[in-house]
Amino acid sequence: MNYVFQFGDVFNAWPELLTGAWLTIRLSGLAMMLGLAVAVLCALGKTQGPRPVRWLVDLYVEVIRNTPFLVQIFLIFFGLPRAGIRLDANEAALLAMVVNAGAYCTEIVRAGIETIHKGQIEAGLALGLKRLQIFLYVVLFPALKAIYPSLTSQFILLMLTSSVVSAISAEELTAVANNLQSQTFRSFEIYIVVTGMYFAMSLMFAGAFALIYRAVFARTDAAR
Amino acid sequence: MIRQFTSAEFFFLVSAVRWTLLLSAIAFVGGATLGLVVALARTSPWQWLRATAGAYILVFQGTPLLMQLFLVFFGATMVGASVDPLAAAAIGLTLNAAAFLGEIWRGCIQAIPKGQWEASTALGLHYVTRMREIILPQAAKIAVAPTVGFLVLLVKSTSLASIIGFVELTRAGQIVNNATFRPFLVFGIVAAIYFALCWPLSLYARHLEKRFGTVSR
Q1: Which of A64, A68, A129, A73 is nearest to A100 (CA)?
Q2: With left for phi above 0 and alpha for psi between -120 and 50, is residue B156 left, alpha or beta?
Q3: Running DSSP on this structure, what letter comes out for residue A138?
Q4: Is residue A201 one of the residues assigned to a domain?
Q5: What is the distance in angstroms between the Cα of A4 and the nearest Cα belonging to chain B?
Q6: pLDDT in tens, A75-120
């Protein structure tokens, strides 16, 4: 092997790579929050809703979980404009990520809600809490705490999967790397650096999730 | 010129499934073989081996599969090997699957009650005999459900091979869409084919989970 590594081009493009990484972080963060909101609504529909709603949620979850993310992006990015809905690459990427994360998280949140004992809800009713209060404080909050580890590892997986949206050239980290690759042909150097950046981001997200757990959930530990 | 979407295009999509299946099969066999090594290393009595396997899992689960495929693909060119997209995708998916299966199976091995380990040690069984005759057969039983579940993920992951230019189902969909410009129809069919492959596996995994109980992943 007489290949000479040259990282010069990669480091010259440092600002572009950071801009791409920042978009990856924003896209992922936004998709996590919106996806969780979708998941909470769907889990609510699945556990409390009338039968047609439960079917619709099941259909949504099963279709998304049993088809590849890449095909979902293509359907949204190439398909929606034919139906008159125009989205640019970044918007289509965000929409695909929210739809995808929503389905995976619905299953997780539903499992969390099912861990809540019926007696807790009855106790809430007996204390005169309103239905919304019961849902938020008696059901959702402890449910999210119970599923926090699976939820956050799903979120990190979502961040890693976001590299796939480069296929429709959204301008996140992988797409920046692809552009750089076609300008400099330093493929291996670029992708090894970018892989390292993704690894750093997944550690960063894991750290942030641990901090959020401490800030939001840990103070209720002593009461248990 | 825009082509019509005819039965020829439809059969082109359907026949591309064999490449998706072939790639899934290679990656599963390769990933299972290497994954068993990773799981055994992760539960081995030697600290350095456990740490090495742990680092392997951390890196492969902490970076995007797409990057891993790119690195294999471009790494092979770098050392001067001719790059066949199928081979690059198969190697990349194998390495990735080994990390995931290794981690799943580590959980299954560690779920075997301590008494079984102690009893087999007390009987004077050697490591190889102990793992082969006592621990692994029991671990295999609880490993079936999460492994089938992982297979769904693997089949879907093969779609990324299209990005490095391997013509499997998703790439075939792109080719047909570029010619016919019927994205809803084409990718709808592609999605339906993936669904037909994955959904039975998902249902089977859920059925097994109910039968054998769940193992935390």
Answers
A1: A64
A2: alpha
A3: I
A4: no
A5: 9
A6: 999 999 888 888 999 999 999 999 999 999 999 999 999 999 989 9
- Check A70 against B194: CB less than 8 A apart: no
Considering its fold, how many domains does chain B have in total? 1
- Angle, helices A187-216 vs A14-48, to 10°: value is 50
**Chain A residue closest to B171 (CA)?**
A71
Q: Which domain holds residue B60?
A: 7-212
What span, in angstroms and rounded, lies between the C-alpha atoms of B172 and B167? 6
Residue B147, domain member (yes or no): yes
Q: What's the rounded Cα separation, in Å, for the pair B141 and B216? A: 14
For A50-62, what is each residue's pLDDT tens digit? 999 999 999 999 9
Q: Is there a domain that residue B1 lies in?
A: no
The ipTM estimated for the assembled molecules is: 0.91
Structure tokens that stand for B146 in this block: 């999460």
Q: Is residue B91 part of a domain?
A: yes
Structure tokens at A149: 């580890």
Domain for residue B217, yes or no?
Answer: no
Q: Cα distance from A19 to chain B (closest Cα, Å)?
A: 18
